[in-house]
Amino acid sequence: MIELKFNIEGGDFDRAGTASSETKKVLKQLNIDPRVIKRTVVALYEGEVNIAAHAFRGEVIVSVSDHQIQAILKDEGPGIPDISQAMLEGFSTASSKVREMGFGAGMGLPNMKKNADQLQVESVPGSGTTVKMIFNF
Amino acid sequence: MIQSEFHHAIQIDEAKCVGCIHCMRVCPTEAIRIREGKAMIIQERCIDCGQCMRACPAKAFYIKQNDLKMLQDFKYRIALFPAVMIGQFPDKISEEQIYQAMISMGFTHLMEVEQPIKLLVDLTREYLQADQVTKPCISAFCPAVVRLIQIKYPSLVDNILPVKAPHDLAAHFILQTLLSQGVKKEEIGIFYITPCAAKIAAVKSPVGEQPSMVNGIISMSDFYNKVRQSIPREEIGDTSQQRQHLTREGILWSTSRGESSRFGNRAIAIDGIHSVVKFLDRLENDEVKGFDFLEMRACDQSCAGGILLTGNRFTTTERLEQRSKKYPTYQEHQLVSNINTKDLTNNLLIDEIKPHNVFRLDDDIAKAMEKMNKAQRIICFLPGIDCGACGAPNCQALAEDMVQGKAKMSDCVFLQQRWENEGKIGTGKAFLNLEKKWGEGRFNADCNKRGRRNEGF
């Protein structure tokens, strides 16, 4: 079992991508199927950007076992009032500032769902969101 | 060590290697280690980009090449060379003079590789429009980039556009032309004048392909010197028939934006291996979206910055830009040839590019995890200075070497110092360890040591 832990600051788009890049390096060294690596890092990157775009701060914990990768992204932020709405492609609550930076197209959660084998979203409005993803190999 | 699947062009002259760490520092794939005071290349990691060669202050890196004497073995002697060869000469030497000099050296045919580029442009366009392509398409032009993707970005191999490079086109074109004139194959000798090490590796062992069509490889730096010596004082004769298929786009093909300016609605050109690495990292995360075509070249200023070029890369590019204006565009150019261009383009497709992950700690995932956990524990003891005095490029790489049984704790000079301080190891033994790593007598005072006398270190 390998565990990796990363902290993400809200608004820090410059550092968003660190967790996915570092995770990718480790997964390659573990000789995991490139297709699984691709799915994992794409979903993870979307999650990182979500935290940078919406939350105050967050934490990413990736654990790799002999048959799956589990990623937990936990943030302190405004939370998601209506999760089913957030899962729709194109739905976005991102600020115009975030959109100007090329993010916030409303593809974050849908893209995570597409790439992960399991996606679980729990949110308490006004407090924060926890996203759990599983990737099997 | 696992037997390398690739042919490698870059070699180290042990007699010249002074055992510094310049090469190890710049290697984009961490393929170099210092053992017993000499640099060594981990073959399966090397992509022949030539960064080490550029960084070496002792000129200890060299490439394997053939002797020009081989020319005597053939009746028809063809020099295949990229347009940057012409670009690197000073303005006062004319194109005509350069061509004449090459002919006086014994070649019968001169073939700038970027002709007839239209076939390559059409084939690439056709591919980009096909439905099943993985976008963005990455050009297969630079062999160092193709190998980098194979070993470090396995999930991106499907993005590589399976269309070969201009030198393949030119080799097929001249060969077919001569054969159609009734020349026998064994009478033809094709010599490739290479601007870099990666092209040699690609010509010698092409990606997923049949044996090479080239009979000899000549380093452009040596060739340049010989051509300079053979330049006629005045222009005599006319060699323009040797470049009747040359076009404006062809001349600029190997410079930056040479390809990207031709393809797709949205295309990017990236040059310099470290910039390429950063971009591929982002591409693999899906951070960059919406692009059709990526031109990626290992050298700064693309082939004008090739390691075997003598001329300055910026002036080379500028001369090519000026020169290109005198030639027709590829749309204006009429390809008059009696060979079947369909056969030619069929030869320009790459069969299959396979990923080849060389960074795995073990084939078995459970064992790889065990090794990774061990490496993470080792890291706790290393100083994180990344000094390179252990012979590995950084602390992380040393820890990984250790779990592979290729290095030991005492290789770290700081850790060894701590052990001495704690009385765990004797000073004599510690010093012997250092000498073993860097060579006997390495630490003796020496006023003639390389680097002392302004030798450009």
Tell me what the structure shows.
The complex is a heterodimer of chains A (137) and B (457). Chain A has a single domain, classed as Histidine kinase-like ATPase, C-terminal domain (Heat Shock Protein 90), CATH 3.30.565. Helices cover 36% and strands 30% of the residues of chain A. Chain A is built from five helices and five strands; from the N terminus they run βααββαααββ. Chain A has helices at residues 18-29, 34-54, 83-86, 96-100, 108-115, and strands at 2-9, 57-64, 68-76, 118-124, 128-136. Chain A is globular and about 40 Å long. By secondary structure, chain B is of the alpha/beta class. Chain B folds into three domains: 10-63, Alpha-Beta Plaits; 68-346, no CATH class; 365-438, no CATH class. Chain B is built from 17 helices and eleven strands. In chain B, strands 6-5-8-9 form a four-stranded parallel beta sheet, sandwiched between helices. In chain B, β8, α8 (197-204) and β9 (216-219) form a beta-alpha-beta unit. In chain B, α4 (95-104) crosses α9 and α14 (365-379) crosses α15.
Quick structural gist:
Chain A is α+β, with helices and mostly antiparallel strands and 137 residues long. Chain A has helices at 18-29, 34-54, 83-86, 96-100, 108-115, and strands at 2-9, 57-64, 68-76, 118-124, 128-136.
